[in-house]
Amino acid sequence: MSTLVWFRDDLRLADHPALAAASRARDGIVALYVLDEVSPGVRPLGGAARWWLHASLSRLRAALAERGIPLILRRGSAETVVPAVVSECGAEQVTWNRRYGAERHGDARLKQALRDSRIDVRSFPGGLLFEPWRIATRAGEPYRVYSAFWRACLSAPDPPALPLPEPESLRAGPRRPASDDLEEWGLRPTAPDWAAGIAERWSPGEAEASARLRRFLARDPSAYPLGRDLPASRAGSDLSPHLRWGEISPRTVWHRSLESGGDVGEFLSELGWREFAWHTAFHRPDLHLRGIDARFDAFPWREPGADDLSAWRRGETGFPLVDAGMRELWRTGFMHNRVRMVAASFLTKNLLIDWRVGEAWFWDTLVDADAASNPFNWQWVAGCGADAAPYFRIFNPLTQQRRFDPEGEYVDRWAPDSLLRPEIVDLRISRARALAAYDSVRYGAEAPAPAQGPSET
Ligand SMILES: Cc1cc2nc3c(=O)[nH]c(=O)nc-3n(C[C@H](O)[C@H](O)[C@H](O)COP(=O)(O)OP(=O)(O)OC[C@H]3O[C@@H](n4cnc5c(N)ncnc54)[C@H](O)[C@@H]3O)c2cc1C
């Protein structure tokens, strides 16, 4: 009996339960990746993500080839492609690691259709630490507050399982279906090559993901809690794109971190935010389309003017920390977390532009663009998400710059000219305008603003 392993957001060989299960197949395995940009619930990838996917697939293909397994590439609707490949290779079993966003409905239909054709289908947990249906309040509801959520995770009866080793040996199935040519998928830009800065900064693939984790854990863990807020320090693990593409599993990160013996609580709680974002997306698969707080449906966003939106995208707002972040993003496909918060607050509050516009830009430009973490965090900043920042929390980009880039190192690196640019908006006036808009959704347009003055962070 041969088994088809369907790779999705899990482009690795270690701690890959679907591959581990398939490695026991009598007649060997067939490895498949489907580029599906057409099925309902699938959000077509942004440019930076496509770049990453190309590199990651070629690394996975090479790693599988070393073990004698070809990676079959196909394009189209998974619900059509997977059964076609199953019949081409005569597989009697299909395995995959679960997905938790809107695509899972298609996965469920496919599972049923294959089972109806007497194919044995098995799905496994692989992308999260905890299955979303296992973490719930006493009333059986999803958590809305992060601290309670993470406490529940930490005391869950089933802690994250130990990561599985890479299968000792793999054997290819007897039939080898045809594969598309990765180059022909056109995932990488041709001229102009806007991805040169991304290629300089990042090296996709499982080997680099493990090496990054090792380097991160070899550093002094006590520097992380403070350093992670300083964009010039590069104290973060830089694991987010590797986790996004499943080049390393969160279980591996979890267990290796604990084994390191350092004080990794704060680092693991960041992994907890990833978990919280995904559990939220599991219950709200339309996370990138609608605020969790329905009152925000009526929020009076401004129609973005061509000038202010493009100044934000290009990093030409005259606010150096925002500009530095937006240019880091454009050049490298990444932006430091603190700066993401400041740039997102600036767009949604000072420019009063809909968070979905910013979310879409990040979706297109981030190498770690993630269907849960990106909309979740945008909603958090905008004030309409789960456990969101209070609506009156409007980051002052100048104060943030003084606190988190006091020597100006980060700004000097990415946007030194921004210091001389005119500011595109008056912070005091735009802040008052945002507060009035937020009051109108909280209390209704007629109600008075709260007597207590809001704080500025
Ligand atoms: C507006 C906005 C958009 C964002 N979009 C994304 C996104 O598309 N993809 C993404 O992975 N992260 C996103 N984040 C979260 C965060 O900025 C990145 O995960 C972090 O910068 C990655 O750097 P790191 O790997 O060095 O993190 P570390 O500090 O080393 O943290 C370890 C891991 O924890 C996870 N993590 C950390 N912070 C968060 C968070 N706030 N939410 C969810 N997971 C987190 C990441 O997987 C990260 O790799 C966004 C944050 C904001 C404010």
Q: What does this entry look like structurally?
A:
The protein has 457 residues and is mostly helical. It has three domains: 1-126, Rossmann fold, CATH 3.40.50; 128-162 and 204-283, Serine Threonine Protein Phosphatase 5, Tetratricopeptide repeat (Alpha Horseshoe); 294-443, Orthogonal Bundle (DNA Cyclobutane Dipyrimidine Photolyase, subunit A, domain 3). 45% of the residues lie in helices and 6% in strands. Strands 3-2-1-4-5 form a five-stranded parallel beta sheet. Helix 13 crosses helix 14. The longest helix has 20 residues, at 47-66. The protein is globular, with a radius of gyration of 23 Å. The model is unreliable at 446-457 (pLDDT under 50). Bound molecules: flavin-adenine dinucleotide. Flavin-adenine dinucleotide binds next to helix 9, helix 11, helix 14 and helix 16. Flavin-adenine dinucleotide is lined by residues 228, 236-240, 243-244, 270-271, 273-274, 277, 337, 340-341, 344, 362, 366, 368-370, 373-374, 377-378, 381.
Fold topology:
Layout: E1 3-7, H1 17-22, E2 29-35, H2 47-66, E3 71-75, H3 78-89, E4 93-97, H4 104-116, E5 120-124, H5 146-154, H6 196-201, H7 206-218, H8 224-227, H9 240-244, H10 250-259, H11 265-283, H12 306-314, H13 320-332, H14 337-350, H15 355-365, H16 373-382, H17 397-404, H18 409-414, H19 427-443
Parallel strand pairs: 1-2, 1-4, 2-3, 4-5
Strand order of the largest sheet: 3-2-1-4-5
Alpha plus pi helix count: 19
Q: What's the CATH class label of the largest domain? A: Mainly Alpha
Q: Averaged pLDDT, please?
A: 94
Major sheet attributes? 5 strands, parallel
Q: Which stretches are low in confidence, meaning pLDDT under 50 for 5 or more residues running?
A: 446-457
Q: Bin the helical content.
A: 40-55%
- Associated small molecules: flavin-adenine dinucleotide
Whole-number count of domains: 3
Distance between the termini: 61 Å
Secondary-structure class:
mainly alpha
Strand content: 5-15%
**C-alpha Rg (nearest Å):** 23 Å
The ordered string of helix (H) and strand (E) elements is EHEHEHEHEHHHHHHHHHHHHHHH
User: What is the CATH H-level superfamily of the largest domain?
Assistant: DNA Cyclobutane Dipyrimidine Photolyase, subunit A, domain 3
